[in-house]
Amino acid sequence: MKITINDHRKIFAVQDEFNKAFPKFKIDFFEKPSKAGSAPSKKMVKHASKTLGQCRSAHNKGAISITAGMNVAMVEQNFRDVFELAVQVFQKSGNGWVKAEGDTSLVEQSE
């Protein structure tokens, strides 16, 4: 799957697209770092109606490819390296969500 990334795209749209492709997973975004080039914020975005531009300091556009064979760490790293978006992937556990381990494969959990 490819997810289009640009400053005007809403967070909930990316979350929905990701969840449709990988129903046992969800993706959450962190707030923009306090300074360009600094470590990502540790605060999660509370309002999914924010735009991606409000969550990052780099403002390039493009698409990110996510395949079922990728693991969680690769997905998080791609968002960070290519688009300076800090994300965290969660997986369904019972009636709730838990942080997915980095080596968890998207394909193993989606089947």
Report on this model:
The longest helix is centred in the C-terminal third of the chain and has 12 residues, at 72-83. This protein has three helices and five strands. With 111 residues, it is of the alpha+beta class. 25% of the residues lie in helices and 22% in strands.
Summarize the helix and strand pattern as letters: EHEEHEEH
**Residue share in β-strands:** 15-25%
Number of strands: 5
Question: How many DSSP helices?
Answer: 3
Considering DSSP H and I runs of 4 or more, what fraction of the residues is helical? 25-40%
Indicate the mean pLDDT. 88
- Helix and strand content put the structural class at alpha+beta
- Tell me the strand order in the biggest sheet: 2-4-5
Q: Stretches where pLDDT falls below 50 for ≥5 residues?
A: none
Counting copies of identical and different chains, the oligomeric state is single chain
Largest sheet: 3 strands, antiparallel
Q: How does the overall form come out from the CA principal axes?
A: globular
Summarize the structure.
With 111 residues, this protein is of the alpha+beta class. Helix content is 25%, strand content 22%.
Helix/strand layout:
Elements: E1 2-5, H1 11-21, E2 25-29, E3 62-65, H2 72-83, E4 87-93, E5 96-99, H3 106-110
Antiparallel strand pairs: 1-3, 2-4, 4-5
Q: Descriptors for this entry?
A:
111 residues; alpha+beta; three-stranded antiparallel beta sheet; two-stranded antiparallel ribbon; 3 helices; 25% helix; globular
